[in-house]
Each structure stands twice: as C-alpha cells, then as structure tokens.
Amino acid sequence: MIRSPLLLTLGAFVLAGALAVVTAGFLALTMERRSIEAVDTILDAGGMAWVEVDADGLRVFLDGTAPSEAAAFRAASTAGTVVDADRVVNRIEVARREAVAPPRFSVDVLRTTDGIQVIGLVPAATGVEPITGAIAEIANGLEVANLVETADFPVPATWETALAYGLRAMQALPRSKVTVYADRVEVQAIAESAEQRTRFLQTLQGNQPSGVEVVLDISAPRPVITPFALRFAIDAGGARFETCVADTVAARDRILAAATAAGAAGPLTCVVGLGVPSPQWADAVTAGIGALAGLGAGTIAFSDADVTLIAAEGTGQDEFDRVIGELAAALPDVFSLEGVLPQTVSETSAASAGPARLIATLESGGRMQLRGRLPEGPVGRSVEAFARALFGGQTTDIATRPVSDLPEGWAVRAMAGLEALSQLNDGTMTLEPETLILRGNTGNPEAVSDLTRFLSAELGQAAAFELQVTYLEALDPIASLPSPEECVERVREIQAETKIIFDPGSVEINEAAGEILDRIAAVLPDCRHVRMEISGHTDSQGREEMNLNLSQSRADAVLNGLLARNVLVSNLTAQGYGESQPIASNETEEGREQNRRIEFRLLTEATVGGDPEEDLAEGAAEGGAAEPGARPTPRPDSVVEAAARAAEEE
C-alpha cells in the first residue's frame, strides 16, 4: 500500500515533464515560424527577395547570393531590426564579380607661359617617367603641376607611340593643350603669327605616328589690317580679287559667294582680320561687287569706309550714272562712294604726247635696271636716289631721260611702283600716264593682297594699276623647305660617298672628316625645323664602357664641328651608343669598319626621355634597330676630358 502513492507521485512528475517538453517544443516551433515570417516580410519589402531565411530555435539563418558586399550587409542589418541581431547568423555569399575592364588611358598636358599642368592615368608598366622627363627638358623654372596616376593594366599597343608624339608636340608648342589617348592625339595650340602656324603644322604633320589618329588645331591671332582694303576687278581676264579682307568668317563667306556670282572662278581666298570700319562691311562689299557685275567690267575698291568704283574705258555715261546712283543708295551710311569714269584719249592726242613711260626691271639676282622718263631737276633725282636706296647702289643701273611735261604725280607713282617691285623676287614695273603695271614672281602667297593694299594706300583708291604677280612655291622660304625625311636623306647621300672617319683613339675632326662636315653644313641650314640625332657607334673591340665614352665623344665632336661652321645646332643632339647597335659582324675587319660610324637620324617617335631602342624612325638611320636594353651614355661635361680618357683607355 505504501508503494502506490510513490508510484503515483513519480508518474505525475514524468507526465509533467513530458507536457513541459511538448509545450517548449511547440513554443519553439511557433517562435521559429514567426521569426522566419517576420524576417521574410521585411526583406521582401526591401527588395531583397533573393535572401533565404531559416531558423533553428532562437537562431535565424540568412542564406543566398548577394549581388554585392553592400547588399549582403544591408540584408543582415535589415534582419537585425526584426529579431535580436545576436540571433542572426549571416551565411550570405557575394556573387563573383566579372573581370574589371581596363580603363582608357589618357594624358592631358596644358602648357602656358606661367607653367605646365599635366593630369591623367597611364599604365604602370610605362610609368610617369617619360612625361616627367619631357617636361623637365622645357620647364626652365616654370611651375609644374603633375597629377598623373598609374594603373596596373596591360599597355595598349600604340600607347607609347602616341605618348611620345604628344610629348614632342607639347615641347614644340609654347602655348598648347595636348590630349593623348592610345589611338588618338589631339593638339590645340596658338601660334604668334600665320608663318609660325605654318612651321608648326609642317613639323607636326611630317612626323605623325602610324596607327594613331592625329587632330591638329593650331590657330593664329587675327592680323590687324590697316587700311582695311578690298579690291575686286572684272576685265578681259575674268573676275578676280586683287585683295580681299573680312571681319568674320560669316562675312567672308558672303563676300566669296558674291564674287562667285559675279563670275570669279577657282579657289578664292579672303583674309579674316581686325580693323573693320563698320560691322556692315559685308553688306557694303557685296553691294559693290554686285554693282560692278552690273557694269560688266571695271574695278571696285574699298579702303576702310572709302569706296571707289572705276568703270572700264568705254562705259556709257548714262549706264555709269545709274549704277553709281543705285550703289550709293545701297551702301550703309558710314561708307562714302566715289565714281571714276575714264575719259577716252584720242589717237591724235596720244601720238602727240609721245611714249611717256618708265620701266624698271628686277632680275632674280637682285640687279635692277631703270629706263624711261623722269621729271627734270631735284624731283627726278630723288626718284633715282630712292631706287638706289631700295636695290643697292652697286646693283642699280639707271639710264633715264629727264623731261618737263610728265603727268602730275609721276614721281610719287614711280617711287610707289619701285617699292612694290622691291617686294618681288623678279619682275618689271611699267609706269604709264593712265596706269601702273606690275609683273613678276614671288614666294609670298599673300603678295597680291599686300601689294594691292600698299598701292591703294600710296596712290589713292581711284588710281589705276594692274598686278600680274605669280606665286612660285620654289621661292617660298617656308613651303620650299625639305621634309624631315628629305633632310636625313640628303645627309645620308653625302655619307654614302665618304664616311666620317676618326683617327684611332682620337675624337678630333681630321682634314678628311672636315671636308665631309663642310658639305653637311651646307645642307643643314634648310633643315633647322627638323630634329635630328648625331649617333656615334663603335665596333666591339675594347671594353664596353670605353666604347660608350668614345662614341659619345666623337658624336659631340661632330656636333661641335658643325657649330664651328656656323650651323645652328638647337635642333641637333649628339648621342653615343658604343658597340650596342652593330650593322655588320664584328668578327671581320670589314664588319668592324662598317660598325665604326657616325649617323644622322630623324628623331620622331623616340621616347622623349631618351631610350633609343624605341626610336621608330625606321629607315631614317643607316643602322639597324637597337638591341634590347641598349642605352646611351650621358654626354660628358667636357669633350676635351672625355677625349683624353678615351685615348688613355684605347
């Protein structure tokens, strides 16, 4: 009987325990379900449906693949706002990112008179050394801001070539902005004059790298033109500009269109400049050209706000008056109009007057002959003295006849014609009572325009003159310059006949080498716009360091020899390469003889910092490509000391 209560008590405890376990399990499952539902709901609302939520008791597990580290962190943080953050177990993985695309490398260089700024991203393999080296050569105390960074990505195929060209352009252009990409170089610059702009373009266009697009935008300031003059003529030879100026590009286009409508053919040019007397210049000029076209022949001349319409001989008075009246009404108020209707000279009066004529003939060598009639007394002698002053007393041949019945202003017209003739390479100036005729050749493409403005200013707008001036490119000091390749080829032709040879162990220019330098010195003045390198080379006999020093000293000797022959050497550099660039075998005497040489080669896409093995001027040098790793020795401070060391070592 005693055991029954004990068993009942134990049974009650077991039953209570079982109920507690069941209740705890039920409560745990309920909590898990509610935690999952709460976390799922808030993650879905936040656009994170990719998260898989699970629970194990009090712990909440987050699984799935996040698109980024930030998304994974945001999911865990969001879940922590619903349940205790200590209960959240973050098992989210981050999606594997694809390989990062390489950046587009670029460099922007801005060079002004105040300093140099450079910014960009370049490959780590090439680094910033080529840029800093190029800037150091021209900095000369200027402030330099270098913000170039590097990135460890493969070097694009044409990057080094494009960079070298861009840095060379920056060095050549004092006021410029150069942008370099691997496949494109953009150059913007301001030249001080049209001539300088032509030289810049010729230099940069002659050495453009292959495989790289080059965009050149070099502008020159608009010239100040005074007087602001334009002259348009229609005669038996057709319609043409003798000089043309405009104040804007739009005005130029309108004027050229009016000239074309009046019958002018061929390429027409009109200088855009400063100094216009009125913003209505194009209105006045187009009206004047249209009026002249209505007459059919003659000349319309503008000098600032003065307009002169010169009709052709034989024009009817009524027709002339009608055109003058219509043009006067069409011109803007600021312009004043003068009409000139030449009077026909009868054959009888012309015969009685005699051949009043003065002829000046200028030869290409500079000799000038003056024949014909001049006024008597001091006035005629002043014309002769003026001619000698222009052309030189020793090269002026004067045989004129002094007369007293010459037309008024003969001496003034004669001196103006002589001064115009002096601006030609060769030609004739013929002065007659009714006109002045200038014929000849020139190397100035703007000569006709310049001479027209000059004669209009000296003789007056109503004065009749005729210009038959021909531009010859061979006489143009800029256009006739040889190309960089032609310059190198000229020097190579001289060296192909006879090499520059030094005595053994010597760096002195001997008599034979001096004769070759004399011939090279005669070629180089026309090549001052070309950067060339004087390269010194040796054979492999002797120590490598000795050969480097010897080749450098000999290259310097050639440079100094040219300088002693009055050659400007600012475009030349001397560099020694020792035995590193053989063009023949060093195993034979004949091969060694070929390797001991001095070369002139074009500096084009060479690395500006000075690595000769990357010189891309293929074919410009007589030798082959440099061996990898070959570097030139620095130029010695003293050529004399270097020569002494070389002699001792040899």
From TrEMBL:
A GO cellular component annotation in the UniProt record? cell outer membrane
* Residue intervals of the OmpA-like domain: 489-606
Compositionally skewed regions (Low complexity) per UniProt: 618-630, 641-650
Q: What is its main location?
A: membrane
Q: Where in the cell is it found?
A: Cell outer membrane
What keywords is this UniProt entry annotated with? Cell outer membrane, Membrane
Asked whether the keyword Cell cycle is assigned, the reply is no
PANTHER family, per database record: LIPOPROTEIN YIAD-RELATED (PTHR30329:SF21), STATOR ELEMENT OF FLAGELLAR MOTOR COMPLEX (PTHR30329)
Entry protein name: OmpA family protein
Q: Which organism is it from?
A: Roseicyclus persicicus
